[in-house]
Design brief:
11 helices; Rossmann fold; 8-stranded mixed beta sheet; alpha/beta; about 10% strand; two-stranded antiparallel ribbon; elongated
Length: about 325
């Protein structure tokens, strides 16, 4: 089965519904379909390291090889929740911070009606999601602590004005515990036993592995369903914690994603599928590829009119000085926004 057919099946569309080159929007960076064209570019062509220079293959192989069974998962658990055709260094790389981090307070409000002002919150992990959660909660007036294993992310947290702690140092005093690490057993039974009455525990990170929920299903503890996705776990002495979504992803269980963010993701996927369908046979192997900056910039430009935004254009002299094409890409592939 050709990669074009696989791409079409992934999109759940018929091949006849995938637009050809003549139907693509103006300025689209994807490969146009030429009648009678059969020359295939080498799938192993190396992408240029200099911004502004292209490659015969629009999509570039991902150097971090993924297992075949996990081909549609992103390699970075800190940016959990994306699709394989999202460039982790491009426009949609900010989506986890927006889509998950910024949805943390709305999800908590919908489930618990909690007031954030003055609340003490510990955010476990300061990756893309942790940064979004911490910033959003700080803006709502919460006192935010951060736990982190990576010294670089830890330094970022400190320079952003958050106090870096170990979970066991603050677990007795905080009002809300949020996991955003992508790891397992971040909050274990020992931590849960030490939490104060009424502490809210939830997960914004990866799957349902971060909070050791299984350790709470013991005879001495009582579970009380308060409302959908909200459980009180009650200790023998009457202490109770508020567990949201049974430790599953809070943003998927208790909230919705803004349609604008989904539009960015869907547009990126659509362009990737069009490129795969229009590309000559043999250009792409059945592998995971990263989108180039040019395509991410194109997706971003399509969404700028929503804000009535007006981009500044480089002059020929400025473009020559920077060594760029005045139409982009404007950043090298290693640049992280």
């Amino acid at each position: 089965m050709s990669v074009q057919v696989v791409a079409a099946k992934m999109a759940e569309v018929e091949l006849k519904d995938v637009p050809t080159g003549k139907h693509l929007p103006a300025g689209s960076p994807v490969t146009p379909t030429e009648a009678g064209s059969s020359a295939a570019a080498s799938p192993t062509a190396e992408p240029s390291a200099k911004a502004g220079e292209g490659s015969p293959s629009l999509l570039t192989p991902n150097p971090a090889k993924m297992p075949q069974a996990s081909a549609m998962k992103r390699p970075d658990p800190q940016q959990n929740g994306g699709e394989a055709f999202i460039n982790r260094d491009g426009t949609v790389a900010e989506a986890p911070r927006m889509k998950k981090g910024r949805l943390c307070p709305p999800s908590l409000k919908r489930t618990t009606d909690v007031m954030f002002g003055g609340k003490q919150v510990v955010v476990c992990g300061y990756g893309e999601v942790g940064k979004g959660c911490s910033a959003a909660l700080k803006a709502m007036g919460s006192i935010v602590y951060v736990t982190e294993i990576d010294p670089i992310c830890a330094l970022q947290a400190c320079m952003d004005g958050f106090r870096l702690v170990k979970l066991n140092e603050v677990v007795r005093q905080v009002d809300i515990v949020i996991t955003c690490t992508g790891n397992k057993n971040v909050v274990v039974r020992e931590n849960l036993d030490r939490m104060k009455n009424g502490c809210i525990v939830c997960n914004m990170g990866h799957s349902n592995t971060e909070i050791d929920v299984a350790s709470l299903r013991t005879p001495e503890l009582t579970w009380e369903r308060v409302r959908s996705q909200v459980d009180h776990v009650i200790w023998p002495d009457g202490k109770r914690i508020v567990l949201l979504a049974e430790g599953r992803l809070l943003n998927l269980s208790c909230s919705t994603v803004p349609t604008f963010v989904l539009s960015i993701t869907a547009t990126t996927q659509a362009l990737a599928l069009i490129e795969l369908y229009n590309a000559p046979e043999g250009r792409y192997k059945q592998d995971v590829y990263l989108l180039p900056k040019k395509m991410d910039e194109y997706v971003a430009s399509l969404h700028l009119p929503t804000f009535d935004a007006h981009l500044t254009e480089l002059t020929d002299e400025q473009a020559k000085y920077l060594g760029l094409n005045k139409n982009g890409p404007f950043k090298p592939n290693y640049y992280r926004y």
